[in-house]
Amino acid sequence: MRRFFPFLLILVLASSCARPIDRFNIRRGVNIAHWLSQSNVRGERRAAYFVNMWQSFETASQLAIPEGDPNIILSFHYYQPMLLTHYQASWMDLKDYRGPVHYPGEVVTSSEMADRPDTDRALSSSWTDQVYDKERFAREFGMAAQVAKDHGIPVYCGEYGCLSVESNDEARYSWLSDMNEVFDSMGIARAVWCYREGPGGFGILSGSSIEPDRRMLDCLIR
User: Fold this and answer.
1) In the predicted model, is pLDDT for residue 88 greater than 90?
2) Burial zone of 124 (CB within 10 Å; 0-12 exposed, 13-18 middle, 19+ buried)
3) Which of 18, 37, 82, 142 has the fewest CB atoms within 10 Å, i.e. the most exposed one?
4) Which residue(s) pair with 77 in the sheet?
5) ∠ CA(164), CA(165), CA(169), 5° rounding?
6) 166 near 160, Cβ under 8 Å?
7) Backbone angles phi, psi at 78, to 5 degrees
8) In degrees rounded to 5, what are phi and psi of residue 44?
9) Backbone phi, then psi, for 73, in 5-degree steps?
10) Residue 175, class by beta-carbon neighbours within 10 Å (0-12 exposed, 13-18 middle, 19+ buried)?
11) Left, alpha or beta for 50 (phi > 0: left; psi -120 to 50: alpha)?
12) Residues 130-188 pLDDT 10s
C-alpha cells in the first residue's frame, strides 16, 4: 500500500450521533487506538476526527482532541439551511414542504408563511426569518476552524451540497458559489457531495449522463 499512498488516512466515527458527548469521545478514542495498534501499514498516518451529531460545526468545541499531534485533521459537514439544500428530499420530513425558499437572505419569511398550510409552517419553522449569507457561513465555519487553530491542526469540510431542484436553481448556484468563496477566504479544504447521483440529486453528474452540470462546476472551480 505504501507504494501507492504516502500515508494512511484513518476515519474516526464519520457520522456519529452520540449522547452524551463523553460517550462519543470515548468511542472515538477506542476506535483510533485500535487502528493505530492493529494496522500493519508502514509509514505516516493521518486521523480525520469528525465532530459529533452528523459532523455539525456546532459540536466541534466538545471534541477531546489529543494535544501536540500534527497528524490529526478536524472534519465537519455543512448543509445549512436544510430547507434549501434538502428541499423536498424524499427521505426526510421536508418531502412534504411545498412553500418557497430563498438564498441569500431570509430563507423564508413570516409573512410568506402566514397563509401557508400548517404542514409548511411547521416544517419551515427552524428557518423562518433566518438569514443565510456569506457572513453567516464565515461565522459558522469559524466555530470549527477556531478549534482546529487552537490545536494547530487543519480543518476540512468533508461534505456540503444542495439538491438540484429546478425551481431553486438560482438559489442553489448562489449558495454553492458563496460557500466556496468563504472556504477559500478561510483556507478550508472541502469535498462537495457529490460526483454522481440520480436525477434531482446533489451530483455534478446526474444519472447516466456524461455531461456535467457546468454551472455547478463554475461555482466549485474558481
Assistant:
1) yes
2) buried
3) 37
4) 56, 159
5) 85
6) no
7) -145, 120
8) -70, 150
9) -120, 130
10) buried
11) beta
12) 999 999 999 999 999 999 999 898 899 989 999 999 999 999 999 999 999 999 999 99
CA distance 37 to 143: 32
Look-up: residue for cell 440529486? 201
- C-alpha to C-alpha distance for 30 and 41, rounded to whole angstroms: 19
Query: What's 65's DSSP letter?
Result: P
Residues near 112 by beta carbon (within 8 Å), at least 6 away in sequence? 99, 100
Contact 164, 87 (CB under 8 A): no
The answer to whether 65 touches 153, Cβ cutoff 8 Å, is yes
Residue 46: beta bridge partners?
A: 9
Q: How far apart are the first and last CA of the chain?
A: 33
How many C-beta atoms surround the C-beta of residue 183 within 10 A? 19
Q: Edge-to-edge strands of the sheet including 72-78? A: 7-12, 44-50, 72-78, 155-160, 189-190
- Determine the 3-state secondary structure of 87 from DSSP: coil
Grid coordinates representing 25 are: 469521545
**CA-to-CA distance for 128 and 73, rounded, in angstroms?**
34
Location of C-alpha cell 457572513: 135
| Cell output for 46 | 493521518
Strands 196-197 and 189-190: unpaired
- The phi, psi pair for 160, rounded to 5°, reads -160, 150
d(CA 87, CA 90): 9
Question: For 72-81, what is the mean pLDDT?
Answer: 90
